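Session log. Operator J.P. requested a structure for one protein chain; no other inputs attached. Running the standard single-chain path with token output.
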Amino acid sequence: MTGHYGWQGKRVLVTGGAGFIGSHLVEQLARAGALVTVLDDLTAGCRENLGRANGNATLFELDIRQVAWEELLRKEQYEAIFHLAANAYVPPSVERPAWDYAINLDGTFRLLEALRGTKWPGKLIYASSAAVYGNPARIPIAEDDPTVPISPYGVAKLAAERYVAVYGQLYGLKVASLRFFSVYGPRQRKQVVYDLIQKINQNPTELFLHGDGTQVRDFNYVEDAARAMMIVAENGALQGEVYNVASGRDCSIGELASSLCRVLHAQPRLLYSGSVRPGDPEKWMVDIKRLSELRYRPQVSLEEGLRRTIGWYRETVARSA
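Structure written below.
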């Protein structure tokens, strides 16, 4: 459960709400009784992702770079905005940095300018990324540790975070940013968990892994990640602070592969590339004390989250192939 804050009847805007994390957030908000407006250009998201919002979500198909923000904000009295619309992956930012900048930084800046111009009184929760840390100076990673991103994606996310905080301080906006670490689960059709499930499904005898298997991540189930956004909106100071969002449990890529094989009852031979992709850090272990102080507790274990994700994969992806 989230905190005591009442979402019943509250008008809420979720940008990127038809995407992976966004659609799970919309689902939880709708379940809590909120009236949700979703802005999404459906480049990465899809209408089907909103099917479990039980009619409490209205979708507007719009590109975050082209929204007439001031007009929208004057028309609708949103009490909270969850800003997730973005390029959510490192590799495309390495290949197309100008495109990543336009979506992740300029798109966020335009929203902030509209909030300032309309003197919007609500709450803004910004979805940032662990990519702002780059290769961390120490582990576990805490929010006050150095931020030295190693990809255009991480740079844009960090710059957007700072804009969010400064706009909060200068113009009285109630804002906070959440740095997500390795979120996985149903509806995600990229990243390591999905990729490994797909590889094992296609070839149960051999499994190819980037790196040497010792890279460390903190895998956080998507429903827990979405719930964290609501908890910050409910209980956070909203003074420009940032929160790490993770499970607080580290796992190597090799261990992840073994867990997936165990759940799938597969025994492939593991093959390693020996090198990681450009822009990918080697090791992430996470301190989530700041978020835990708001009464956040991860509720889904890695093993259970993998079972749910595999179940979704079998029901949707594998069945439609």
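Operator note: Residues 11-183+220-247+286-300 form a domain with the Rossmann fold fold (CATH 3.40.50.720).
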